[in-house]
Design a protein that fits this description.
The protein is mainly alpha-helical and about 325 residues long. It has helices at about 15-25, 35-40, 45-55, 75-95, 100-110, 115-125, 125-140, 145-150, 155-170, 180-190, 205-220, 225-255, 255-290, 295-320.
Length: about 325
């Protein structure tokens, strides 16, 4: 069977769960048993990579893996068991706010003395750390807006219109050269990174995988549409100030004009998106389905939780002067088509 030439290769497994899923995708082994899933560390490399492998079949898939695996019943049962562990842990660990209004206020307040990754990169980050950040974020940004689009058939009225308007901007307003995933690939080229989709999956830490798995989890389940809207709101509301800091980091480290442009674009676009998301997407959703308010709060809190873990991993490694990648990143620019 012929496969799309842009499908990424399967990554190196990180334990019995990801080994089992990968072997099954190759047609060369059995899926992991439920007891193994129940024993695994929920935010660890093995479980998160196994879940990532399952989810990626709904995006571009993998080279050598039959497209029919996307809806394989046995694989879906395994994915459901992995998801159950992940979702249950998040519902326990990511409880912060009691209402949508309270959760949104938390997003809108910028700390006077910020200590996050974007503050670090703006103030003292080095070019090698900027490159690591871009390599890890490529798992998200090269599919930017795609998982959020899954919610569109599950919305209607004002919420649907607002969501579609923001997504249209993310996809370049109808211009291929303005699609945000394309702009991020240009940023990667400036940094001497390989722009092939999925190229840095082997380099990604568990914390980075969790951030991508979260939006796939929310996007693929209609029952979690409120959480997906909460995730989307968190990304859009916090993007503009964070992007401003990252644009400054790109200039200070000499990352390149395309690297600067990617974040400059997000400063402007996401300042507008923040208003649309709050008033039209969230407002419209809760006007029609007010019972989804707890799910919106959960989506906001879960996003903050996984992003904080990702940031803590990066800063812990960087402040210790060590790489935060699972595999080295060489200077190997290859442009996507």
């Amino acid at each position: 069977m012929e496969h799309d030439r842009d499908e990424p290769p399967l990554p190196t497994p990180r334990g019995p769960l990801s080994s089992g899923v990968e072997a099954y995708l190759r047609g060369a082994g059995r899926l992991p048993r439920r007891e193994g899933i129940d024993r695994a560390q929920v935010y660890g490399d093995d479980l998160q990579l196994a879940l990532y492998l399952c989810y990626e079949l709904h995006y571009r898939g993998f080279a050598g893996v039959a497209p029919e695996r996307e809806w394989d019943p046995d694989l879906l049962r395994t994915r459901a068991a992995l998801e159950q562990r992940f979702l249950s842990a998040l519902r326990t660990d990511a409880r912060v706010h009691d209402s949508v209004a309270e959760a949104l206020r938390g997003l809108l307040v910028e700390p006077v003395h910020g200590t996050g990754v974007t503050h670090f990169l703006r103030d003292e980050g080095e070019l090698w750390q900027v490159r690591e950040y871009a390599a890890l974020r490529s798992l998200y940004h090269l599919k930017e807006a795609d998982p959020h689009a899954w919610v569109l058939p599950r919305l209607w009225g004002r919420a649907k219109a607002g969501m579609a308007a923001v997504e249209f901007d993310e996809w370049g307003g109808g211009r291929a050269d303005r699609v945000h995933a394309r702009l991020f690939a240009d940023l990667m080229t400036d940094l001497g990174l390989d722009t092939r989709y999925g190229r840095y999956l082997d380099a990604a830490t568990a914390e980075a995988l969790v951030t991508v798995n979260l939006m796939s989890l929310f996007g693929l389940h209609r029952a979690l549409r409120g959480a997906l809207v909460g995730h989307f709101a968190t990304v859009e509301i916090t993007s503009s100030p964070g992007s401003r800091r990252l644009a400054q980091a790109m200039r200070r480290t000499g990352a390149g004009s395309a690297a600067e442009h990617f974040y400059d674009e997000h400063v402007e676009a996401d300042a507008v998106h923040e208003q649309v998301v709050r008033h039209d997407v969230i407002g419209g959703l809760l006007e029609q389905e007010p019972y989804l308010a707890p799910d919106v709060v959960f989506g906001i809190d879960a996003t903050g939780f996984v992003e904080d873990r990702f940031g803590a991993r990066l800063l812990g490694d960087w402040r210790a002067s060590r790489s935060s990648l699972c595999a080295p990143v060489s200077h190997e620019s290859t442009h996507i088509s």
